[in-house]
Structure formats: structure tokens, C-alpha cells
Amino acid sequence: MMRPLRAIRKVNLEQLVENENIQNISVDYNGNLVILSVTKDGGDTLHSIFHVTASGVRKISLPPVKEAFHHVQPLREHWLLVNGRVMDNQTHNAFVYDDQQGLVTSFHLGDGIEHVQTTDQGDIWVGYFDEGVFGDTIGTSGLLCFDQKGDIVFDFDALVKLNKKIPLIDDCYALNVITNDTVYLYYFGDFPIVALRHKSEYELWKDQLLKRPPIEGSQAFSIWEDHVLFSHGYKEKGTVHLYSFTQKSVKSYLPVNEEDEVIHYEFATGRQHLLYLVTENTVYQIDLKLWLSSF
User: Fold this and answer.
1) How do 56-61 and 71-75 pair as beta strands?
2) Total-model pTM
């Protein structure tokens, strides 16, 4: 029988967004949930940002736009909204708003965007899925970092050209921006874990366990010291998997809530040492750092 792993209930989505439709759930650089909702009003699209912190929930309403955004992250004192699809290399698909609904600036981030994570210093890390990698816009390397003006400050391809051992990205499955200086990613097709440091140094793990079930195909993870907690991969839906860098081992767990009921989560999102599991109505949190300290 699979071992249980306790997760803590963080947000009731139905109560939080009420009649609005959830578009995206992500995590900011402090480990707080950021939820993007969308509603239609005639020909306009209305968005709300719900920023869930220890002091409560802050709701930010945005001005009407024609197309729905897919991603949201804080960008210094502003908010970055991103449309993940764009047809060319010029159209702006990233828009920065202030708290008064004013548009501060906009720029182009490319097509096929799977992940957007910002840092407290204003870096914007963007991971691309296969249509972005094999498309005609700027995301062909699979991972780029932009400054808050929209200029590229890191290109994964440039690192690969200098270090041939690093596999190319076909599809950036999971991204975890830990700090301004440290970023982890897990990607198709070889499914390695790569740690980037200072945008110039790297560590590479190509363990066979990372490219086989149950980890193979995971799209979110948290990390603490020498352990990585993966969400489910292609198989064994609803489970989580603890990988050890030092022991080269995998242990699988069944997440349960405070009442020891199994959490049948649909997808997950991770940042730093926190992994959030999302069901139809609830978001649960597993704090890997706290859990490992109890061993």
C-alpha cells in the first residue's frame, strides 16, 4: 500500500473566485499563490488577480481587454500578464499593469509559453512547450530570461553551445525559479534535471529514474537540499514522488488532507520548497522543507 503524505488545505477556490473562471494558478517568488480568473462581458475579457498571502487575499481587477491572458506574476511593484500564444515575432503578448489598472509597458515574449516565473529583482523566466520550441518565434531554445523591460538576458541555447553535455529542450515540462541566482528545470525529451546558477553555471542530473514512470512526464516539482518532490507524471495520477539526488532513489506517496482523505488532484504547481496540489475546488500545499525536517 502506498504511503500517505499529509497536505494542508490553503484555499477554497469556489469561495474565492465565486462566479469567475480560473485561468491559471501559479506561485510567486515568496511562495504565495497567485490565481488568475477570467470572465466575459460582451466582446471584452475581464481578469482578476487573487494574491493569497499570510495576511489574507488581495484582489486586483484589470481593465477590459479583447483576449484572455494565460499567465500572471508580480513584477516588482506591478503585475505581469502574459498571453501564451502569439503568431509572429513582433506582436506584444506581455503586459505590465500597476495597481490602479494602468498599463505601464508591454513587450514580446514569444509563442508557446508554458511557464512564467518572476524574481524579486525583476527577472522574467519563461519556459516554452513544443510549439514554441519548434515554432518561428523567439522561444526556440525552450527557456529564456528577460529583464523587466522585455530584453533577453539569458538564452538556454547559448549555455548548451558552451556545454555539449546539456540536452536540448524539446518541451519545458517543469520550471522552479528558486532565487534570483538559482533556477531548476525538468524537460522533454531526455527528462534531465538542470540547475542554473547565475545564468552561467549549471549542474546536470540524467538519472534513468527521472525518465521512467512514475516521475516521467511530471509538470511540477518542489526542491529542498538534495530532495525533489514531483507531481504525478504520465502514469499513477494523483500521486507524488520523492527523488533523492544523493541516494538516486524514488519513493511514491499518496497525498491526503487533514481528515486523511485522499486528494485526487488534477494538476500541481511548484516553487522553491512548496508544491501546491489543485483539485476542482481546493488548493492544498505540501511544504517539502517542513516535511523533511520531521524525519
Assistant:
1) unpaired
2) 0.97
